[in-house]
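Demo today. Your pick:
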Amino acid sequence: MLLELLVPTNLAIVDEAENELVKSCTGEPFELVKYVAPRCPIIHGSRRNGIVKLRAYVDQFGVYKDVKVTDATPKRLFDKEARRAVKRWRWNTSEHAERCFDITLEFKLE
């Protein structure tokens, strides 16, 4: 099983390039302090690949407030595990009371 996380673990600066897979809604530099890998579900004995796009909201201390799935392919197959993992991530502190991040997770199961 291979899970490819399309999120750098230590991202100091985020630009608006097309290929960025994590974007800060406030545009400020950020760091992912704690990373928890999503588990890959096995559905009916088969494995599949997929992509889940999420928007995560965190407080000024970098602690989870909310996470929403904005898109997924295939629909609903990896959503629960992606949300479970991102809820446990921790980000650096900030002067903003709330921040949001757009995250893309790619599941590759071999």
Summary: The chain has one helix and seven strands.
